[in-house]
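We treat protein structure as text, and this decision shapes the records that our systems exchange. Because each token names a local backbone shape, the row as a whole describes the fold. An entry from our holdings is shown next, in its original layout:
>
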Amino acid sequence: MQLATMDHIISENLPFRASILVSKLANSSNLDVFHKVEEGLDKALFELAIHGFRHADHSLLIKQEQIDDLSNFQR
């Protein structure tokens, strides 16, 4: 579904902001989504926004929990 949606956006030359969960992209064994995002970037249609390491509402976390979560990029 992700690839079909991005294919449509690219074929219609529509601007798009891709919000990426770093932990999902970095640990993916299927690089098709990564390469499709790369294609959208190369065509200047996609703008990337980092959605975070994981889907966490940092406004609900205390300061130390936020620091711990943001320091977690090596997992």
In short: The chain is about 45% helix and 15% strand. Residues 32-42 form the longest helix (11 residues).
